[in-house]
Amino acid sequence: MENIKLYEDKMIKSCDALKEDFATIRAGRANPHILDKLKVDYWGAPTPIQQVANISVPEARMIQIQPWESSMIKEIEKAIMVSDIGITPNNDGKIIRLIFPELTEDRRKELVKDIKKKGENAKIAVRNIRRDANDALKKESKSADVSEDMIKDMEDKVQKLTDKYVAEIDKIVEEKSKEILTV
Questions:
Q1: pTM score
Q2: What are the tens digits of pLDDT across the range 120-171?
Q3: Could you say which DSSP state residue 39 is in?
Q4: What single-letter DSSP state applies at residue 144?
Q5: By the 8 A CB rule, do 65 and 76 touch?
Q6: Residue 35 gets which letter from DSSP?
Q7: Which of 40, 63, 144, 183 is the most buried (most CB within 10 A)?
Q8: Cβ–Cβ contacts within 10 Å for residue 70, how many?
Q9: What is the CA radius of gyration of the chain?
Q10: Tens digits of per-residue pLDDT, 24-78?
């Protein structure tokens, strides 16, 4: 079965999606990635904020957004207000500032719980990919002239990949949890 690589690619994508998701979790310090999923209405088209403004982090707990067109300030502000970021933007007519409050101990624990839940969902996704791979192997063993030993070897390879990516997810969760708790 040559498409084990296909299943490995899916597992890699699950890990990458988790990393992207974690990049949007704010840890008490300013991270411009929390704006990645926000879109503004730019000439009738939903456009990422990064494409209509310069985003910088002048201080550890502040993000500065400077739109290239002053008319975009209201649109950007509106997008931030309706998002789940939970920060009220300050605007001086030219620049929008997002000031991140210090995280409370309770909020940190809540975030770590959320991180672990997302990690668990990513592990479930990897295990589902393993199940799909094993199902494909079983179908192949019935239809093609593939030996049971070859199928067993392939299943072992799939299991090793699953273990590898579950461990990778655990590592990602551990690092993000540590980051949240030690800010």
A1: 0.68
A2: 999 999 999 999 999 988 888 777 677 788 888 889 999 999 999 999 999 9
A3: E
A4: S
A5: yes
A6: G
A7: 63
A8: 10
A9: 22
A10: 776 667 778 778 888 888 888 888 888 898 988 888 888 898 999 888 888 888 8
Closest CA to 172 of 30, 20, 50: 20
Residue carrying structure tokens 């997002």: 98
- The residues near 122 (Cβ < 8 Å, ≥ 6 apart) are 14, 15, 17, 18, 169
Of 68, 132, 124, 121, whose CA–CA distance to 95 is shortest? Answer: 68
Mutual angle of helices 105-143 and 4-23, in 10-degree steps: 170
How far apart CA 91 and CA 140 sit, in angstroms, is 61
CA distance to 34, 51, 56, 58, 71, per residue, from 65 (Å) = 13, 11, 7, 10, 13
Q: Which residue, among 56, 52, 53, 48, has the nearest Cα to 32 in the 3D structure?
A: 56
Q: Starting from the edge strand earliest in sequence, which strands make up the sheet with 62-67, in order?
A: 53-59, 62-67, 96-99, 90-91
